[in-house]
Amino acid sequence: MLAKSQPLYFLLAPTTRYRVAWHLIFPPGILIFLTVLALYLLGDGLRDAIDPQLRVDRQR
């Protein structure tokens, strides 16, 4: 016999505290954004340093 299923909102109920306490999510989100941005810029700089033919000519 199958167990009676629970409504979906019982699974989502623990997430409601983040709507009230936005300060719990904001700092980690900003740090993740800054980490991804730093890795992107590092990769872009490494690509320019390793393959100078891809560099955009900025002397125009």
Q: Which descriptors apply to this entry?
A:
single chain, mainly alpha, elongated
Estimated helix fraction: 55-70%
SS-based class: mainly alpha
Order of helices and strands: HHH
Q: Which stretches of 5+ consecutive residues score pLDDT under 50?
A: none
Radius of gyration: 23 Å
Tally the beta strands: 0
Average pLDDT figure: 79
Proportion of residues in extended strands? under 5%
* First and last CA, distance: 76 Å
Number of helices: 3
Coarse shape: elongated
Major sheet characteristics = none
Description:
The protein starts with 8 loop residues before the first helix and ends in a 10-residue tail after the last helix. With 60 residues, it is mainly α. The chain has a domain at 23-52. The protein has helices at 9-12, 17-20, 26-50.
What's the structural blueprint in terms of helices and strands?
Elements: H1 9-12, H2 17-20, H3 26-50
What would a concise description of this structure say?
The protein is mainly alpha-helical and 60 residues long. 55% of the residues lie in helices and 0% in strands. The chain has helices at 9-12, 17-20, 26-50.
